[in-house]
Amino acid sequence: MRVTIISDIVSEPVSITEAKNWMRIVDYSTDDDLIGALIGSTRKNLEKYTGLSFGTRDLEVILDNDQLEFEIPYSPVQQVTSVERWDGTEWLEAEYYLLGDKLKVTTKDKHRIAYRAGFTDLPEDLKTDIKVLVAWQYKHRGMNFQADKDNAASVTQYPYTNLLNARFYRKVVI
């Protein structure tokens, strides 16, 4: 399976201001770029962990299909633009049915699916996960866990995934 992002999300689901409020950072803007970068990387990691898209984006997936029904990555699916099947020489329009975030096709061919997916409003518990992880990374930035044996115990402070709300949303690993 190959997933291509045609157009990515326009804005992060958690703003720098929201993250700074969570961390109780007031009247201090020197690290805004760092906090913004942490928000983006945290969102991407949680998207990979859950198999969801935390914002609206246009995607294309190409997969060799050995099943007639499969889950579309980076759901929730908002709209399927096109589904094509490879007949060995060219892409042809394919018959399909969308059942929630699952696509049902009529043949076991290679398929190319163009679609729009993602949350228009990210659930608050997933926003909280982003803020928790950003705060942890911000607080522990610059620590070299492997080189500093005295601080190795602090690795255990990292918020375990089994404590995050995202575990309830996990569908697939991408």
Task: Describe the protein in words.
- 22% of the residues are buried.
- It is elongated and about 60 Å long.
- The strands form two sheets. Strands 1-2-8-4-5 form a five-stranded antiparallel sheet, with no helix packed on it. A three-stranded antiparallel sheet has the order 3-7-6, with no helix packed on it.
- It has two domains: 10-51 and 122-168, no CATH class; 57-117, no CATH class.
- The chain has three helices and eight strands.
- The chain has 174 residues and is of the alpha+beta class.
- The model has no long low-confidence stretch (mean pLDDT 87).
Would you kindly provide a brief summary of this structure?
This protein is of the alpha+beta class and 174 residues long.
Name its key features.
alpha+beta; five-stranded antiparallel beta sheet; three-stranded antiparallel beta sheet; 3 helices
Question: pLDDT average, as an integer?
Answer: 87
Q: In total, how many beta strands?
A: 8
Q: What is the chain-wise order of helices and strands?
A: EHHEEEEEEEH
Q: Number of domains in the coordinates?
A: 2
Distance between the termini: 10 Å
**Widest beta sheet: strand line-up:** 1-2-8-4-5
Write the topology of this structure.
Elements: E1 2-7, H1 16-23, H2 32-50, E2 57-64, E3 69-71, E4 77-86, E5 91-93, E6 96-99, E7 102-105, E8 110-117, H3 124-139
Antiparallel strand pairs: 1-2, 2-8, 3-7, 4-5, 4-8, 6-7
